[in-house]
Amino acid sequence: MMKNPYLPQRAKIESIRPETRGERAIKTFKLVLADKASQENFVHKSGQCAMVGILGVGESMISISSSPTQKGYLEFSIMKMGKVTSALHNSEVGEVLTIRGPYGNHFPLEEWKNKNIITIGGGIGQAPLRSVINYIQDRRKDYREIDIIYGARSTIDLCYKEELFDLEKRTDIRVHLSIDVEEEGWDKFVGFVPNNLLRIKPSPKNSIAVTCGPPVMIKFVIKSLLDLGFSDHQIYTTVENRMKCGIGKCGRCNVGSFYVCKDGPVFSYETLKQLSEI
Amino acid sequence: MEKFILPKEKLIDFLKALESYDLFAPVRKEEVTVFAQVNKIDGTTFDFKNQPLTPKGIMFPQTESLFTFDTKTYAMNDSAMTPKKQRVMFGLRPCDARSFLILDPVFKQDYPDPYYLEKRTATILIGINCSEPFTNCFCTSVGGSPASQEGLDLLFIELPNSYFVEVISPQGKTIVEEASSLLSSASPEEEKIKDEIVQAVKEKIKRNIETKHLPEKIEKIFENPIWKDLAFKCIGCGICTYTCPTCYCFDIQDEVLKGGGKRQRIWDSCMFKEYTLHASGHNPRPTRAERLRNRIYHKFKQNIDKYGVAGCVGCGRCISFCPVNEDLIENLMKIKKL
Amino acid sequence: MNLFSLKEAAKQALSQTEVNFVIGYTKGSYGFRVAPFFAQNEAEVEKLFFSPLCDLSLVNYLSLEKNTPLEKFGKSPEQKIGIFVRGCDSRAINQILSEKGIIREELIIIGIPCHGVIDIKKLEARFPGVLDQARAEEEDGKYTICFGDKSFAIKKEDILSDKCKHCAYPTPLIYDLLIDGKVEGKDDRYEDIKPQEEATLGEKEEFWKNEFSRCIRCYACRNACPLCYCENCILERLSPQWVKRSVNPTENVIYHLSRAFHLAGRCAGCGECERVCPVNLPLMLLNRKLEKDVKSLFNFTPGIDSEQKQFLTTYDLKDSEEFIL
Predict the structure, then answer these.
(1) CB contacts, 8 Å: C119 with chain B
(2) Which residue, C147, C178, C209, sits at the end of a domain?
(3) Which of B243, B254, B259, C26 could cross-link C37 (Cys pair, CB 3.0–4.6 Å)?
(4) Mutate which of B31, B205, B232 to disrupt the C interface (most C C-beta within 10 Å)?
(5) B224 vs A contacts (CB less than 8 Å)
(6) C259 domain residue, yes or no
């Protein structure tokens, strides 16, 4: 009997951490696969995604925001947007969800060894970057200078606040947080993420820049990176599209000749430039 | 390749000889010809000449239950996907048979799709040649022909009083052996008549288009405003995709009833506005122009890049069924002229 | 059919600065087909025409251009659109206007009194494989069909569209310009639905079960209908999901009956739904029956007046029922 790629696995919600509030709230779910052996054998790489779902409602492709070095569980940061994500937000600890995956390609962290890494995130875009950051923390000696640039509309919209404030205290990682609009008690940078990037002026020498966030932000960040002297193959980003099957069959997520679920979501700017439909 | 002759009056006996298989054939149902399972051969009106809806529905049904589930226990059951009997599909047009060349790699690659593949491997395909092309046929422009063997296990070619049977694969041979009492060996004279008939039909195909440099052209003019000109007539009804033998876009939806449910796979269309609509409200293909461009790009560039063959078999259904006369051949000609 | 005055009307509409294009008909790419055409200037107006082959409704483009305009035609949807309408089309426009779906000031309506259009499927069945662009003319109850070097005379009722056989409003009821003289409507006795009305419940069930078994839920009927323009169509909503997308007898019946009821008292009788259906479902039977019922129960005919109030949303103190139900 052929393996059925549409059949998901069961996973239990071990914990839920609210990250932001509001209409498009974000929550981080810690899921553990019901089948212990499956959880141990679930191997993923930073940047990959999985189809998280509820039987009777549907599935949604979410990037895995925990690093492969974090064993025994999977973390997903999910923004409440549509039918499936709203139902996920209504779930409670102990309830059962379904997972299919991991799908897609990944950030080439092996190739990036001994380089400086700059992550530039906005809003929920920090989720796939968190998998990279957590991996780098567990393999710190393999990488050079690390800069984490992250911003959101306001302090209420910042994801992973506690984790990032903790990272700020480290001396071997630089964290540059920002919010779009002035707020009482905020003493860090106020402005859009691309502007923060231009203010920090990271050097392109032996560096890789990875960016995720709203499409508008990515556009300006890439432009700023190019202005700072980064070349096309030094810039990486993730692409999002509506997905249903997750395995490159239903045709929905295709961009140019690629399927985002299968050939993405990670693309270097070099490849992205050639895609007709971006 | 083995060749046989089946007298025309013995066709029904031939179909009856295949009783150990589930038989699918084009049958006439209230003025419309559909591909359906034939349970009783006597009394069924077969229609091999007309233009049925595509046979892809036999491998890839409009609605298919991927698995059933219980929302309380989270038990999931996918045992219903395997066909219980071997199947024979009789009366395919050669262009529709070629469509499987385009559908097979999609469902085989990366994560093999058991729903499609189990039905596909369990089905023997018997085609019938076209004796008269339809108004909008252009199979010869995309690598096909009215008597193409590609994708088939057996091919019947209609002679004045009999069928010339070509055995193409080992599965075809097993069928021939099961009906061997009805068949006789084909003579060289009969083969010559067959060749003449096939050639004559090819010459009757009036619509043609040279597709050689089309993929590069389509890539080159991706941002050109001509797509708006081509798409203004389109009303986004989706008929072209639903009647196309090679279209395979689908949607997955959960249906729940009283604590139990099914995850259904259903046909979808890239020509619908909601197809790429994100939950955030953003739509990367907001107008008919982008959707039409995507369809042509997919069929005539992307498919060739990925699988070496155009994603179109030249059956002409999209042209015949389009309510507003969006003519694929006319559109491709305009693209070539640019 | 005075082609000259047709083109002059289109040119007159285009001469107004706010009018970006006129939607009309042009010869199709093969055989008996006719295609919609958006004429933007005087040169393009020459491509417009009208003949008994013009069997499609153009009203759909009004909501299409409003919702997702192709930028080729000017940025703002407030700019005016010229459109050719037949009798049934004008009723569709009237109905949409009365529902405030479009604004009267955005339209330049060029009315064509219609003598009936040909059912292209019947012609293609009679003359299969015709590729040469065909012409059709009507005179004295006969159609003369020409293609290639051949010419045929066919009795009008043999190939006339079924919807035209009982059309009571062939002359547009709303227009800015009217081409040609008015055409008398027919006395519609709803003879076409009598067999269905007189069938027993068992016979009706058998009939519709058979018909709906062919439906592949391609949604073409809804997409082609000029009056189905709801942004959030009940038939495709996901939360909540009223009609499932899967094809089975129950869902198919619910889909079609829901759509028919949503069109009750709104359907203009253009017959597009039946014309576009790839599996030949007799959808107009449903719409016609509801049309008749609405007429006899509420004395209401849709699309007569662009200001008329809808029968379902008005209440008269003299109504026989005491409550809305």
Answers:
(1) none
(2) C178
(3) C26
(4) B232
(5) none
(6) yes
What DSSP character marks residue B86?
A: -
What CATH number was assigned to the domain covering residues A116-238? 3.40.50.80
The one-digit pLDDT tens for each residue of chain B (338 residues) are: 889 999 999 999 999 999 899 999 998 877 788 888 888 888 788 887 777 788 999 999 999 999 999 988 888 988 877 777 899 999 999 999 999 999 999 999 889 999 999 999 999 999 999 888 889 999 999 999 999 999 999 999 999 999 999 999 999 999 999 988 999 999 999 999 999 999 999 999 999 999 889 999 998 998 898 998 899 899 999 999 999 999 999 999 999 988 789 999 999 999 998 888 888 888 888 889 999 999 999 999 999 988 888 999 999 999 999 999 999 999 999 999 98
Q: Residue C177: phi, psi to the nearest 5?
A: -135, 140
Give the tokens for residue B307.
């699988």
List every span in chain A annotated with CATH 2.40.30.10.
9-103
Packing angle, helices A215-227 and A193-200, rounded to 10: 20
CA distance B200 to chain A (A): 39
Neighbours of C239 (CB within 10 A): 10
**C246 and C124 within one domain:** no
Residue ranges making up the domain that contains C294: 191-313
Rounded Cα distance, A257 and A273, in Å: 13
Identify all chain B residues contacting C129, using CB atoms and an 8 Å cutoff.
Answer: 132-135
Question: What single string gives the DSSP state of each residue in A142-154?
Answer: G---EEEEEEESS
Same structural domain for residues C114 and C57?
yes
**Distance (Å) of CA C307 to CA A138, B225, B251, C97, C98:** 72, 40, 41, 7, 5
> β-strands C150-155, C142-147: how paired?
antiparallel
Assess if residue C320 is contained within a domain.
Answer: no
C113: closest CA among C85, C93, C137, C140?
C85
Q: How many other C-beta atoms are found inside a 10 Å radius of the C-beta of residue A95? A: 14
What pTM was computed for the model? Answer: 0.91
Contact B80, B5 (CB under 8 A): no
Indicate if C54 and C78 belong to the same structural domain: yes
> Does one domain contain both C164 and C79?
yes
Q: How far are the Cα atoms of A63, A66, A106, C322 from residue A45, in angstroms, in the given order?
A: 11, 10, 6, 68
Neighbouring C-alpha atoms within 13 Å toward the C-beta of B71: 16
Instruction: Give residue limits of the domains in chain B.
Output: 3-204, 214-337
Rounded Cα distance, C89 and B144, in Å = 42
Q: With contacts defined as CB-CB under 8 Å, which chain C residues touch B331?
A: none
Contacts of B187 (CB under 8 A, 6+ apart): B5
Residue C182 has which token pair? Answer: 């008015």
The tally of domains found in chain C comes to 2
**Residue from B81, B104, B111 whose CB has the most chain A CBs within 10 Å, to mutate:** B111
Amino acid at residue number B7 = P
Cβ within 8 Å, pair B249-A245: no
C166 and C200 co-located in one domain: no
Residues C174 and C230 in one domain: no
Q: C286 near C257, Cβ under 8 Å?
A: yes
Measured CA to CA, the distance from residue C175 to residue C192 in angstroms comes to: 30
* Statement to judge: residues C168 and C199 lie in one domain: no
Residue in chain B nearest A34 by alpha carbon: B74
List chain A residues with CB under 8 Å of B66. 6-7
Q: What CATH architecture does domain A9-103 belong to?
A: Beta Barrel (2.40)
Strand segments (E) across chain B: 3-7, 22-29, 32-38, 63-70, 76-77, 87-92, 123-128, 154-158, 162-167, 184-185, 250-257, 260-267
Closest in B251, B289, B321 to C70, CB measured: B289
Alpha carbons B5 and B156: distance in angstroms, whole number:
9
